[in-house]
Design brief:
By secondary structure, the protein is of the alpha+beta class. The strands form three sheets. The chain has a five-stranded antiparallel sheet. Strands 9-10-8-11 form a four-stranded antiparallel sheet. A two-stranded antiparallel sheet has the order 1-2. Helices cover 39% and strands 25% of the residues.
Amino acid sequence: MNEDHYIKKIDRITSILVQLQSKPIVRAQDLADKFEVSVRTIYRDIKTLENAGIPIFGEAGSGYSLVDGYKLPPVMFTKEEVLSFITAEKLMQNFSHESLGSHYNSAMEKVKSVLRNSEKNLVTDIENQINIYAYQPEQKDSVKNIIPTVLESISEKMQLKIDYQNANLEASERTIEAVGIFYEFNYWYVMAFCTMRKDYRQFRVDRILKITKTKNPFSQEYGHINDYKNNTNGKKTEVKLLVEKKIMTHLVNSKKYYGLTKEIETENGIELIFETEWIDEGFPRWLITFADYAEIIYPESLKITLKNLINNISERIKI
């Protein structure tokens, strides 16, 4: 076998060891998929680690893990990995929620503490040369550690009680079973099953006035957050627009937010089809920003709503 084969094998075995350090259990099939080799090759790699004195617990078919309590020396990072840490740190500084920021900073200090001197110098030289220019609305949470509390409840499968204020400043108490969190259009949200509504709801984190962990277990098992985010049971209305091509570059991000499901290029322009829960307020107010480049194909009710909105604006503008 050539030298490249042995180098690839060493790299793969080292990466498998990193996987074992970072996860409670690792399946051979997942490793095979990750490194694009056969499961039989992974079995041989695991055997190589065992022969080297690494105490691995498990067996073929069920998964592998390091024996509890076994500690390995700090791993060494490549220059490319260090650069990726610096970039990720800048992203976290701009997009992480305040309840996560201090924990992330503490974790990054620990990572930096195991870097070699040359890598520490690289961090010093580069970190001021990377920046993220993005508008972030000022958000002041009523309570601290909201996201860590939510994530703990997901891990422990325990219900939460929250006091929540909606967009109309109306407050209510809810008992929720959190499925996950997500970041979208400058805000963090909690996706959860609301026991009062008997349905899945999205709760904007900065509108949570109070949060309390309960001792009540979840009433059901939940899948991944993506299974629920786009499938809430709110009433949706289908909308079809014909939009001039020259305005499309200005709608790249917002069209997804307002429920775009299909985009079709035609001789007369771009047909956009949406499914929206905000047909009465949010959608027409967004549409008015490019209404001079768009034609409403359906529904008729949207045409009436938009016309009334334009009339109200006209009455307020005094020349």
